[in-house]
Amino acid sequence: MQAQRYLYAIVDSLPSRWRPSPNGVGGGVVTAHGVRDLVLVASPVGLPPARNPRAEACHHDILAGLLDAGAVVPFPFGTVVGDSELASWLEARWSRICSAVDHLRGRIEMNVRLLRLDSRAPANEGAAALLRGVAERLVERAGLAAWRYAPTGHGANVAASVAFLVPREEVPAFLARIAPVAARVPDVAVVPTGPWPACSFAPPLEEPAPTMAASA
How much is the pTM? Predict the structure, then answer.
């Protein structure tokens, strides 16, 4: 069986105090390897891991341990590449990776969860519109260009979240700006969480970048 690597992230300026975890996803030791002027954080794995809460929590914890790096480009859960293919896999995506490093440098993700306080009320279009309206007020107050809105839950448990890409040093100011929204919405709990690695803002890397056709 071909040796494989489970990929967590590409990082720039990995802090000297960072220490690899002895137990990555699948049980392998997490390592950091230089790739050009960046660092690949990965661990050996046999078979692609099953998606379950324990494996997802392990993936998330390892990413969270990289937050002090200058830039973190996280890979989605379950990104596994054969050792013999790793160099070509990275090469095919390198321009996108470098663009993402520049875009995410010094930035982290803050996630704001929106939870209906009365879960007994029927979940209908009005409930969805309520959550969307709160999200729009958060976006307006946050004053940030990069954000993602995602409805979550279903039935009576309909909820939503808004992810923001925030400069690391502006997190306290961001929380202060959105605080009035949390204080003035009677039917929705507004719950900020983070900081997290910017998973919502990482580029899709499942497929290699398209190549330009040669001109005739």
Answer: 0.85
Question: Residue type at 26?
Answer: G
How many whole angstroms separate alpha carbon 32 and alpha carbon 34? 7
Question: What is 107-201's CATH topology?
Answer: Alpha-Beta Plaits (3.30.70)
DSSP letters spanning 127-181: HHHHHHHHHHHHHHHHT-S-EEEEEE--GGG-EEEEEEEEEGGGHHHHHHHHHHH
80, burial (CB in 10 Å: exposed 0-12, middle 13-18, buried 19+): middle
What is the Cα 95 distance to its own chain's centre? 19
The secondary structure of 33-45 as a DSSP string is EEETTEEEEEEEE
CA nearest to 96, candidates 13, 187, 206, 216: 206
Q: In angstroms, rounded to a whole number, what is the distance separating the alpha carbons of residues 201 and 73?
A: 9
Per-residue pLDDT of the chain (216 residues; tens, 9 = 90+): 578 999 999 999 998 889 888 989 989 999 999 999 999 999 999 888 889 999 999 999 999 999 999 999 999 999 999 999 999 999 999 999 999 999 999 999 999 999 887 655 555 567 788 889 999 999 999 999 999 999 886 656 678 999 999 999 999 999 999 999 988 888 889 999 999 999 999 988 776 555 443 333
For residues 44 and 207, what is the distance between their CA atoms, to the nearest angstrom? 22
